[in-house]
Amino acid sequence: MKIRGWVLCAAVLALLLMTGCAAKPTKIEPQGKAYFTYFDTVSYVYSYAGDSAERFEERSAEVSHILEEYHKLFDIYHEYSGINNLCTVNKQAGGEPVPVDEKLIAFLDVAKELYEATDGEMNVMMGAVLRPWHDCREAAAEDPEKAALPDRDALAEAAKHTDFSLLEIDHENNTVRISDPAASLDVGALGKGYATERAADFLREDGAESYVLNVGGNIRIIGAKPDGSGWVTGIRDPAGGDKDFAISLRLKDTACVTSGVYERYFVVDGQRYHHIIDKDTLYPAGYFASLTVLTKDSGLADALSTALFCMSYEEGLALAEQMEGVEALWIFPDGGIKYTQGVEALIEPQN
After folding, report:
1. Which residues contact 118 (CB under 8 A, 6 or more apart)?
2. Helix (H) or strand (E) holding 23
3. The dihedral formed by the CA atoms of 26, 31, 35 and 39, expressed in degrees to the nearest 10
4. DSSP 277-332
5. Residue 51, φ and ψ in degrees, nearest 5
6. Which of 32, 217, 229, 270 falls 20 to 30 Å from 264 in CA-CA distance?
7. What is residue 104's three-state secondary structure?
């Protein structure tokens, strides 16, 4: 059943504590709305700007419309009447080019740029490898006692079908084609953040200030609080324990995206296997417990939180430092925390 509607502020904020990044409430009572339909997660829209109820309703409805549109375009499991989406493109892999919306072309162009910028760590053509892991995770959820890992030989074979060159983008005719019938797209590392940023684009162009979007833990802050300060935003402690947050940052006009081992996982023989797969090992990356990226573009933050998660700290630090306007924060399995230089000024003292 699809559920939409107003959610009491206290209930919404309680749910936010379960995400990697969570914007803590200000003294000003916000208007808030939640949607339970897009990207298999919960999406929240908040206004701290004192909009009228009608104005907030109009803006949140358009945000919902944008998220729904991209949810359908990026869905790799379902097709929808009247559009060719990524599910359609995957199904026709090895066949004829598929006519698609210009918005999907633009998205795949960004994916290609990020593939090159991260030396292949952010690769939307990893579908052939990610699908077996997804299937094992789903099977484990249905029957934990029969949880099993993907076959290593099958993963090695799947990895032969992940090169980005297998994706053919025709800008003149607005078509997309996967040349290898065994290859497929999976945009989970980028799609949600990209869609969030398109919603943020609308709000900015509409003159919105003091808005916060939280799309499944992808935090996008538009502007600042009415007094000009930022929101205190907690980075979840991956180890849990007595404290909710490992560190808190005061943020404004930026995106905050965290990837962590605690998000989606399953257990086999007492060992946890999370969903962020290293392209080199074809197994869950083991460098960090969580990794947070701060930058003004939510799509970039989403992509880099995955890419840097699959790199050593030294490699990831070098990449983050060479990208303008990008800050990163690493939490290691032993609880240690490191971050780029610009994070220091954002740290909020813990009580």
Report:
1. 303, 304, 307, 319
2. strand 21-23
3. -40
4. B-TTTSSB--S-SEEEEEES-HHHHHHHHHHHHTS-HHHHHHHHHHSTT-EEEEE-
5. -60, 150
6. 32
7. helix
**Alpha-carbon span 2 to 4, nearest angstrom:** 7
Only one residue has tokens 């000003």, namely: 28
The 10 Å Cβ neighbour count of residue 315 is 15
Within 13 A of 218's CA, how many CA atoms are on the CB side?
Answer: 33
Closest CA to 232 of 201, 215, 256, 209: 256
- DSSP type of residue 119: T
Using DSSP's 3-state secondary structure scheme, residue 218 falls into strand
Query: In this predicted model, what pLDDT tens digit does every residue of 270-289 receive, in sequence order?
Result: 999 999 999 999 999 999 99
Distances (CA, A) of 118 to 254, 260, 303: 21, 19, 9
The token pair that represents 3 in the structure block: 């559920």
Residue 78 in tokens:
């379902």
Q: How far apart are CA 105 and CA 87, in angstroms?
A: 15
**Alpha carbon of residue 104 to chain centroid:** 17
Whether pTM > 0.70 for this model: the answer is: yes
Phi, psi (rounded to 5 degrees) for 197: -70, -35
Nearest to 185 by CA among 267, 271, 84, 291: 84
Q: How far is the C-alpha of 261 from the C-alpha of 306, rounded, in Å? A: 11
Tokens of 176: 């997309």
Residue 311 near residue 287, CB atoms below 8 Å: yes
Q: Which of 131 and 28 is assigned the larger pLDDT?
A: 131
SS3 per residue for 169-229:
EECCCCEEEECCCCCCCCCCCCHHHHHHHHHHHHHHHCCCCCEEEEECCEEEEECCCCCCC
pLDDT, tens digit (0-9, with 9 covering 90-100), for 232-249: 999 999 987 667 899 999
